[in-house]
Specification:
With 392 residues, the chain is an alpha/beta fold. It is built from 14 helices and 14 strands. The chain binds 3-methyl-2-oxobutanoic acid and zinc ion.
Amino acid sequence: MSSTNIKIFDTTLRDGEQVPGCKLNTQQKLVIAKQLDVLGVDVIEAGFPVSSPGDFESVSKISKLVKNATVCGLTRAVKNDIEVAAEALQYAKTPRIHTGIGTSDFHINFKFNTSRKDIIQRAFKAVQYAKSFVEDVEFYAEDAGRTDNEYLAKVCEAAIKAGATVLNIPDTTGYCLPSEYGAKIKYLKENVKGIDKAILSCHCHNDLGLATANAIEGVIYGARQIECTINGIGERAGNTALEEVVMVLKQHPYLNMDTNINTSKLYATSQLVSENMGIYTQPNKAIVGANAFAHSSGIHQDGMIKNRNTYEIINPKDVGVTKSAIVLTARSGRAALAYRAKNVGYNLTKLQLDVIYNSFLRIADTKKVVLDNDLHQIIESSKLYNEIKAVS
Ligand code: KIV
Ligand code: ZN
């Protein structure tokens, strides 16, 4: 049975760039957009054209540059926003306008001070107007995560009637539990009239650390697009991390879903975004963190040296990391020491290993990590040094 293709909508350059202090200039955005295209994302949300002349310029230049992906621009449900986005996207091979409005009672009562009925009318008009410029119009129901499902279904119906090709269901505040978010997508699949004319998209924020889980639950219950960012960057606690959802789908073949992402480019893309944004990626970050394939405790290292599958569920090469690391610390055992000694050129016998292991532990207790240089020093200062054979 052929697998279901899940579209990857990258919003690093729009939602991701909303991280305070991480603003990119146009040149940096072009470099990242080019890499996203090479990575194989289906849609690049290039910016919010009406928000500033700089963003307009970036969206316009990205539209000219990108060869494969759809280029998308964000708007509010406001005529001028839509006109400006259409102008910025005019050179894109496949342009998409992403328009929408808040649908939760919090947004309706406090942000717009209006009625549910008025929101439906504004949603309809915005999509209809966007449709007069481009064929591909995505509608977002902001704060859909806290919008009651019955009303949300009516908003979605109006957007479809106006011609929306994609319905984005954002958990804007990162509030939903995976079961709730999955149930929401299921409800919409089953209750929105005309739902077959559009695809549902998951856009999840990470305020409770559930953004990846929610997006996965969304596709399990029928969504066909995931909106995400490289390294999970974005407003507050960030968005669904692209590298995480892509690898979840790849590593769980029984879900029978795939993406068009060339996963061997994930690590390089992560580094590029991190360097350009000046935002450091936490070492324990799944898939792309510095420690994602590093093993430091003796028990794990022993298993890893015998067979990688004992402690790794992903081959690091699959995500563009050259190899797993056996890190020497005071928690490391003899197997790791022998392995790393061999890597730097020494074949230790059992007796030599016992002696050198004791010197190693003394040094390791004073340092966070024992490096190759330290290892050379430990071995060269050993009384057994002259008997140690070099790796042939
Ligand atoms: O989180 C959100 O609701 C958004 C929309 C503007 C799509 O980013
Ligand atoms: Zn968002």
